[in-house]
Amino acid sequence: MKTTITINGEARALDLDPRTTLLDALREHLGLPGTKKGCDHGQCGACTVLVNGMRINSCLSLAVMHDGDAVTTIEGIGTVEKLAPIQQAFLTEDAFQCGYCTPGQICSAIGMLQEVADNWPSQETTDLTGKINFTDDELRERMSGNICRCSAYPQIVAAIRSVAGDAA
Amino acid sequence: MRPFTYERAVDAKAAVKAATETPNAKFLAGGTNLLDLMKLEIETPTHLIDVGRLPMAAIEETADGGLRIGAMATNSHVAADAKVRARYPVLTQAIVSGGSGQLRNKATTAGNLLQRTRCAYFYDTSKPCNKRAPGSGCGALEGLNRNSAIFGASHACIATHPSDMAVALVALDAKVEVLSPSGAARSFPLMELHRLPAETPEHDTHLIPGELITAVVLPPPPEGGQTYRKVRDRASYAAGLASVAVAGGRIALGAVAHKPWRAADAEAALASGASPAEAIAAELANASENGRNGFKINLVRRLVPAAIEEARSNGRRA
Question: How far is CA B216 from CA B27, B60, B108, B228, B311, in A?
């Protein structure tokens, strides 16, 4: 089935079995293995990408559902020569051990910080009609869809906090 | 995943027509539950009708002061909507207590209502389950049933409905709008959407084949405060063991039955002057356990009065 998806700013034409998930399309058909397959059931968050700016689990979405969408993967966020601030922050804060969950953590953090900037509530938000008070409890709650088996959570919180800027 | 064909619906009527005329077809919206179940071959549709881009995502005021939430509005957008937060806070609280940020960004209002149980025996295709394989038996009855139903279960099924959002919607007295294969639209109380299992747990709802949910409609918010409280095994991203939505004098319970459970006996007791503790005791007179889930009865007994008091306090502050 023919599908065109804009990946990291470039329109990519695909002809796929409709069963192909967005995750498998990225990794197996587009040569973009930065997005990781962890559980493949939406439980771990390793496959998180941004679709039209919103973070989603790419394992629980079919590629054919995304015809015409703009997808950003970890490969579109920074380069080895010029890391994005959140990537540098993960290095500075030592926010990983094995690194397998990191692309998902970073894509999720970018989407999450935009949600905070847009004043979206979470279950930690006590005043639903005011401005979000972006505490560490808020940060942890909003990142609960991303698991780190190495348990680098304190450093992940520190890395995200260090770039939160005006979202905070 | 088993092979299937895929089409993107051009409008709601065409989607319903395709679903009615194509054998073994299913609607696909966000996909967060359906695609997971298809990977496990628990759901095996041979045709998917993608309704995700139908223009049914608006959240609009109704003439009578209520709110109409389009079926394709994502859980995130409903939870973040200023009108919902200001007037139906119990709905925002319920939605953000479920799933993860990534899931809520994709999951839709209709899809949330139609998600399937998380019962371990439904998920394990090597085990009997009358919901997944009618007539095979219920593995949970005498098995690992710690999170099974305490209200309205049958000998065929003790599974629970996993939605948080639907519990708040029942407490808010929401209606569902659907488009039927005849081309007619119909509307009915959300409380009547889901079924109790009885002898046919394979049917989660009363929808007829091909029917498409197009919207959820809220009446004006009730007098009095609102709140949602949920108890679970970990603080975030976990299904509930028990939850409660309070909206004025209305109470609905989650994770305790095959459907969002309207606590009508508790409401009646409260209305006639009973204390919150007496009210939930009246409701729990109908509860039953299957071994490992007995603790949920005490959990509800403690959870609900606290939520009623919290809602009253919220109402006084408003």
Answer: 17, 11, 11, 19, 23
B6 to chain A: closest CA residue: A18
**Using one digit for the tens of pLDDT, what is the confidence trace for B40-58?**
999 999 999 999 999 999 9
Q: Which ranges constitute the DSSP H helices of chain A?
A: 22-24, 85-92, 102-117, 136-142, 153-163
CA of B269 vs chain A CAs: smallest distance (Å): 30
Q: How far apart are CA B239 and CA B247, in angstroms?
A: 22
| Residue B160 amino acid letter | T
- Interface predicted TM-score of the whole assembly (ipTM), two decimals: 0.97
Describe the crossing of helices A153-163 and A102-117 by its angle, rounded to 10 degrees.
Answer: 40
pTM over 0.95: yes
Q: Which residue of B has its CA nearest to A120?
A: B80
Beta carbons of A141 and B86 less than 8 Å apart: no
Beta-carbon separation of B35 and A115 below 8 A: no
* CB B169, CB B91: distance < 8 Å: yes
Q: In this complex, do A145 and B99 lie within 8 Å of one another by their Cβ atoms?
A: yes
Helices (H), B4-151: 12-21, 34-39, 75-80, 82-87, 89-96, 101-106, 109-113, 120-123
One-letter amino acid for residue B274 of the chain: A
Q: Which residues of chain A make contact with B3, given a CB cutoff of 8 A?
A: 17, 19
Q: Which one, of A28, A33, A26, A1, lies nearest residue A12 by Cα? A: A26
SS3 of B98, please?
Answer: coil
The candidate with the shortest Cα–Cα distance to B307, out of B237, B240, B245, is B245
Contact at 8 Å (CB) between A147 and A45? yes
- B19: pLDDT strictly greater than 70: yes
Query: b or e along B198-208 (b: 16 or more beta carbons within 10 Å of the residue's beta carbon)?
Result: eeebeebbebe
